[in-house]
Structure formats: structure tokens, C-alpha cells
Automatic annotation (TrEMBL):
Top-rank taxon, per record: Bacteria
Keyword Manganese: no
Residue intervals of the Adenosine deaminase domain: 12-334
GO cellular component: cytosol
Record-linked PANTHER family: ADENOSINE DEAMINASE (PTHR11409)
Record protein name field: adenosine deaminase
């Protein structure tokens, strides 16, 4: 069955790595700037002019260059109204492409220019997301971010805020910002507070800096998920450790190409990570700055990596499995998503008259590798009393099952 963009648009999805301040609507930025008397760079009068002024979707020099656009969005996100609106509209945009669960991350540190207190900021965002749930049924949670290029003490304040709002809309803590010259080990006090209070932890790592950044995120931070992890492949031992512990990667394809974390879609490590068995999730990162949606991200993966229906289903399931939600709720939501996905496949099969390939290529690969390994393993026969010994069977002789195909792995 040929995968269409419409199928991807309609399939249930998660978005676990999306920044609030990087996902506003152009029209909202213009309206808020005019209302609040804020001068935007280049004095844009239209959405197209604003998009060009902040290089929406353009390839940047590096991550630091990419982050410059956030100065514009943050300038209009300094009131309760603007924060509520940004959160609600992000939820609305996600729900319209059948995102079922979303984790929105941001740092209250960056929204205090007009004197808003941290709790007021968190409540404004929470109310916007609650309204999106009331209208569209979108489930969501907040991830509070510390900022690498700000002091470790300020990130500790964010960790304290995160603990205070645990089970009140906040589901995790993150360390974001420029990786270079800002190692995760400097923020150990914040990480300790988070872990000691049983709060979920994800850390940006391996995006603009090497695998040692991922190493610090895991071994000094105690991260439960890794934001990006693009350069993890450079350290095979660490890659195996991440794989063995099933630490999920929050993959953001288009963003990684835009920031030059990956030279191109073709050179991105996602297909290698999938074939190796890592738990990968697909995410937008920044809907506005990267000019993308969840449908776009899955569609690009299908186009560049020739994914089949089984691959999409596995990526979808990994997204729900990796969510920072209680296990029992996660189990129910994942089952519902699988049922909806499978019904959608049947619908498309009926419409197209084609049969979907429902076994992920990665699962097929694992099955064939296992079969090959089993074939090379010698058969060990137990030692028997001399009078009971029989001639061992000829292991080189073909058996009835030699021509059977292996069952795809789970």
C-alpha cells in the first residue's frame, strides 16, 4: 500500500519535543506586536515579510544562529494573554493533524520582562493547553526548561518550579540552549533535585556537540530521554548503552538539517538508529522556526527512508511508549492509538485495493539476523550413558524448516 500524506495526516501521533516559543503562528506574532507596540526586525507588514525577516525554515550557520529567531517570538510572549494564546494555538494546530498527546517545553526564565512571576507563567500556559483539551481532546503536559547559557543557579530555580508543579500540569524537566561551552555537568544540582523528587528528565544533547554531551546527560544528569541525540552514532559503546537501557531519542529531522546537526536528510542517522533497534520518536522541535508540522516530519521520513506502514506504526508506538505519562494511562492510550491506526490502514487498503506491508523493515532485519546467528550456533547434545547413546543427527542435512521464513521480531 502506497503511503500518502493524507494517511500520515490522519494517523494518531505524539509530539514530545516541541518548544512553545518556537511554534507560534506568524499572524499571532504580528497581532501581538501591534497591540503591545513592539517593533519587529525589518518592520514586517505581512506574514511573508516576517517569515523572511526571521529566516523561517532556512538553513542556518549552526544552532546558535538558529536560536536568534527566538528573540522575536519571545518579545511578544511576556503577558498572560500571549502565553495563553500561544499555548492554545499550538494545541489547536497539533490537534488538527491528529496529534493525540503533546509535551510542550519552554523556560519561564525567558518570560519575565514585564514582571510576570514564574507560577503565573506556568498557569497561563496550563490554561491554554487545558482549553485545547476541552475543545479538541488533546492530551498534553508541560516540560520546564533550564537554560544552558544562563547560570546553573537559574536552572535550579526552574527545577524547583518544576517540582512545585509536579502533577499540576508539569510532566518533566529539560536543559535546553546552546550545548557548546555549557556542559550538562554544571547543572548537576538541578538534576539531583529533579531525580530526588521522582520527576521525569529529558536533556538536549548530541545536537550541536558530540556524543560526550549525551554521555553527560545520561551519567551526570540521569536523563530518561535524550533531546535529538544526532551525534550519538559517533560513540558505538554509548550507543549500545542507550539501546540496551531503551533510552528514547527525541528525533527532530528537519530541525537537525536546518541547524546543520545533520548535513542532509540522507545523512541523518534516523534510519541507522531504527535498524539498530534504538527507540526513536519523531518530533517537530519548532513548528514556526523550522516551518514544519508532525505530518511534515513523518512525510519526510517516508520519502527519504522508504518507510512502510509497519515502520510508521513502530515509530508511532515508540512515541506513545516514551511519553511522560503514568504507565496505566500510557498503556490505554497506546492501545487506543494502535486500534485507530490499524482501522485507518484497513480503510486505506479497502480504498486503494492494495495490501499494506505491516511488518517493520527493522523487525524483519532483526529476525533475519537472529536466524543467521541461530544457524551458526552448534547443537550441543547431552552426555548419555554409553549403552543409551545414539548416533547424532547429521546437522548438515536439510530439514523441513530450512526453507521457512523467520517470524519477524516483536
Amino acid at each position: 500500500m502506497k503511503i500518502t500524506r493524507d494517511f500520515i495526516h490522519r494517523m494518531p501521533k505524539t509530539d514530545l519535543h516541541v518548544h512553545l516559543d518556537g511554534s507560534m503562528r506568524l499572524s499571532t506574532i504580528l497581532e501581538l506586536a501591534e497591540k503591545e507596540g513592539i517593533a519587529l526586525p525589518g518592520n514586517p507588514q505581512s506574514e511573508d515579510e516576517l517569515a523572511r525577516a526571521i529566516n523561517i525554515g532556512a538553513i542556518c550557520e549552526d544552532l546558535t544562529d538558529y536560536l536568534k529567531a527566538f528573540d522575536v517570538t519571545l518579545s511578544v510572549m511576556q503577558t498572560e494573554e500571549s502565553l495563553y494564546r500561544a499555548a492554545f494555538e499550538l494545541g489547536e494546530d497539533a490537534a488538527r493533524e491528529n496529534v493525540k498527546y503533546m509535551e510542550v517545553r519552554y523556560s519561564p526564565l525567558l518570560h519575565t520582562r514585564n514582571g510576570l512571576s514564574y507560577p503565573v507563567i506556568v498557569e497561563a500556559v496550563a490554561e491554554g493547553l487545558r482549553e485545547a483539551k476541552r475543545r479538541y481532546g488533546l492530551m498534553s503536559g508541560q516540560i520546564i526548561c533550564g537554560i544552558r547559557h544562563m547560570t546553573p543557579e537559574s536552572s535550579l530555580r526552574m527545577a524547583e518550579l518544576c517540582v512545585a508543579f509536579k502533577n499540576r500540569g508539569v510532566v518533566g524537566f529539560d536543559l535546553a540552549g546552546a550545548e557548546a561551552d555549557n556542559p550538562a555537568k554544571d547543572y548537576r544540582e538541578a538534576f539531583y533535585l529533579i531525580r530526588n523528587n521522582n520527576v521525569n528528565l529529558t536533556i538536549h544533547a548530541g545536537e550541536a556537540y558530540g556524543p560526550e554531551s549525551v554521555h553527560q546527560a545520561i551519567h551526570m544528569g540521569g536523563a530518561h530521554r535524550i533531546g535529538h541525540g544526532t551525534r550519538l552514532r559517533e560513540d558505538g559503546d554509548l550507543l549500545n548503552f542507550v539501546n540496551d537501557l531503551r533510552i528514547p531519542l527525541e528525533v527532530c529531522l528537519t530541525s537537525n538539517v536546518q541547524t546543520r546537526a545533520a548535513k542532509s536528510f540522507e545523512s541523518h542517522p534516523l534510519p541507522f538508529y531504527m535498524s539498530y533497534g534504538l527507540r526513536c520518536t519523531i518530533n517537530t522541535d519548532n513548528r514556526l522556526i523550522t516551518d514544519t508540522t508532525m505530518t511534515d516530519e513523518y512525510w519526510r521520513a517516508v520519502q527519504h527512508y522508504d518507510l512502510n506502514i509497519g515502520d510508521l506504526r513502530k515509530l508511532m508506538i515508540d512515541g506513545f511508549k516514551s511519553a511522560f505519562m503514568p504507565y496505566r494511562k500510557k498503556r490505554t492510550v497506546t492501545a487506543q492509538a494502535c486500534a485507530e491506526f490499524d482501522a485507518l490502514v484497513r480503510d486505506f487498503e479497502t480504498t486503494s485495493g492494495e495490501k499494506a506491508i505491516t511488518d517493520p523493515r527493522v523487525a524483519q532485519e532483526i529476525a533475519f539476523q537472529k536466524a543467521s546467528a541461530d544457524a551458526r550456533t552448534p547443537t550441543i547434545y547431552p552426555i548419555q550413558p554409553e549403552d543409551q547413546r545414539a548416533e547424532a543427527p547429521d546437522t548438515d542435512a536439510p530439514s523441513e524448516t530450512d526453507t521457512e521464513q523467520p517470524t519477524p521480531a516483536e
